[in-house]
Batch of 2 targets.
Target 1
Amino acid sequence: MAHDAPQATGPGRLVIRNIGLLLSGAMEKPILDADTIVAENGKITAIGRAKDVDTAHATTTVDAAGTTVAPGLIDSHVHPVAGDWTPRQNQSGWIDSYLHGGVTTMISAGEVHMPGRPRDVVGLKAMAIFAQRAFWTLRPGGVKVHAGAPVIECEMVEDDFKELAAAGVKLLGEVGLGGVKDGPTARKMVGWARKYGIQSTIHTGGPSIPGSGLIDKDVVLEADTDVVGHINGGHTALPDDQIRCICEGCKRGLELVHNGNERSALFTLRTAREMGDLSRIILGTDAPAGSGVQPLGILRMVSMLSSLGEVPAELAFCFATGNTARMRALDCGLIEIGRSADFVIMDRAQHSPGKNILESVQLGDLPGISMTIIDGIVRTQRSRNTPPATKIAEIIAGH
Ligand SMILES: [Zn+2]
């Protein structure tokens, strides 16, 4: 099913019933008192108790079997290239594998692994527009890949950003991966991007591959991107005092990635918690990369931060859902009426010592996924990648 018309959203009426635990994605109220969700034509239309919700005329009915439903996970930092193939480790099907790890939306931080990537202004603009179009047309497995994230170069002028925005480009790739590595130039171009509605991120920390450079706290704070990309390094992190300076010196998103320094991720988490700023924490894998691709990377981050960082699991899931959706103005990531019907259904992994899914994640285990849904359409059933769930959701009517 990977490649056929994945953008289709209906018409259809999806009912998910018998939900045991409903995670909202919202830090202010991470658990909802509801056991039923209805979605029509790809959007959530009702959330509540079965007796209070009209569940008639469903085209698809899913029995969650008392397990957990959460918003589909969002990977805030990926490096796609073309379709479901990456040249970085020469892998095919990596996006579909992420779907089996619960990821339903991905944000490109630059299509930097494109063989022969153009660095002249006309070429980089053309490539960004091409990537945006191509990934919006082809969604591997149904996964929404927001791509078309140009890596800025010193020769760019304001009109280039205006032109990119008019052509549908909504993101910048990581500042620092191209020729712009100084604070003043980065700040000027990030300002142009923002003026035309283009979001920005930056490569924080030491170089990731030969040719990329060190981006320290002074450049990060001066550039003032919307997201502090991999504040825990990609992979080499800044020293703790610089990470603290960044957390305290701005109000931007604090992105923690799997392909980064785990100790620095925990330091960032504790700093943000001290500041009462956990809503700034968002998660990515920063894959494909030198350490490969991680289909379970977002789940592993949730589990690592919850267990070692001592964050209740229901809040750690917000880092990978609602926080990212809000920061990046996405219409998914939260269980709210009107949002995209993108869900992951999961349960405590078989033989995990926790007595429920939240306890098992807080003990450092991964949950087992039994279903993913994007735009109200069931995309996968029992995950081929997670440990098996104790109880699984099933389609009981419809197709
Ligand atoms: Zn990076």
Target 2
Amino acid sequence: MTSSRHLDWPFLEPRHKVLATELELWARRVLSDDLQDHSVRAVDDACRRLVRQLGEGGWLKYAIGGSAYGASADTIDTRAVCLIRETLARHSGLADFAFAMQGLGSGAISTFGTQEQKRRYLPRVGNGTAIAAFAISEPDAGSDVAALQCAARKEGDSYLINGEKTWISNGGIADFYLVFARTGEEAGAKGISAFIVDANTQGLEIAQRIEVMAPHPLARLSFKDCRVPATQRLGEPGQGFKIAMSTLDIFRSSVAAAAVGFARRALHEALSRSASRKMFGHVLADFQLTQAKLAKMATDIDCAALLTYRAAWLKDMGQPVTVEAAMAKMTATEIAQQAIDSAVQIFGALGVVSGQTVERLYREIRPLRIYEGATEVQQLIIARGIIKSHQESEREHD
Ligand SMILES: Cc1cc2nc3c(=O)[nH]c(=O)nc-3n(C[C@H](O)[C@H](O)[C@H](O)COP(=O)(O)OP(=O)(O)OC[C@H]3O[C@@H](n4cnc5c(N)ncnc54)[C@H](O)[C@@H]3O)c2cc1C
């Protein structure tokens, strides 16, 4: 579908090239992007089916960590996760979503879970028989996540959770939710803990299904005296914010990779259309104005991909990655939006017809500039990081 020259970049190892090539063949055989029925039921069914297929195909093993629990390796291979998301996004936004949520919803269990928690959840996430979700956002705490109010009060051997979560992907179809709630050890970020809450726990309800421009399962959750055994707490009390941020450190680069996948598909569509659309006695690709658009799209996409795989490589090398992952997420999602917009322009009226691939991509890319930290939040993370490094290096030279 697109050139695979980027698979030879030095950030990747031979095993990554094999993985991407095999997944490409699988995706061509199994996936299609023709979900026309956007009803809640059709979208839910499609997601459940995709999770099962991704499990059967062996791809979800890369979304979890711990060979003893069915994972591909003991720690999550961030470059593999990125390649998988990039490839799936090129073929089907919903397949990319299904893969990503298995990782995001269980990532903290892979990293911080007890043996018992890992044994109970990871094998099922990795083979596609359990669906995971990540629940941190609230109506009054999105970008300012440390302001979350959903509370978990200790009572004997359990916690009682009360409050709300919103914009929760897989809300309504998940088998368990990774819930971040205030346990009050300290004010702000240091007073939050993480819990694994099974979907059938009494007191947890789907308060509202939310329909969005790129349909996928999304819901507001309500917790009313929802009792969770203390053994379902992840990590230590008060560690929740750290757990959430370290999970995002892995998966933020993968949002960038998905954006690269959407943008590569848009470039492919734009190249095909401009090479075949006849006008003024030529084809569209003969005109320099078109060539300028295509050149910018290709160059921007490589920029985004280089930042993405640099961040993923740093993470796999055990290096701090917060700034680099933010650079990748911000750049890739913004660039992909522009590249897809150019593809729609090249298609003319056909580009805005419902069901056209570029029309679908136009809707699919938009939320990526908002979730897992909006572009403005990434700008703040980058600025904070580089100002701190600058001050440290100035002190060293004093
Ligand atoms: C499709 C989709 C799926 C999602 N899935 C999940 C999920 O599975 N789990 C989950 O917990 N959450 C999920 N979210 C929620 C997502 O993480 C939040 O939407 C995001 O953190 C932004 O929060 P908010 O929507 O409340 O926007 P707000 O916090 O109200 O921010 C609004 C806008 O303000 C701007 N902004 C933010 N900070 C600053 C600043 N400091 N200076 C200037 N401008 C700023 C940004 O442009 C931002 O978009 C999802 C969201 C979407 C759209």
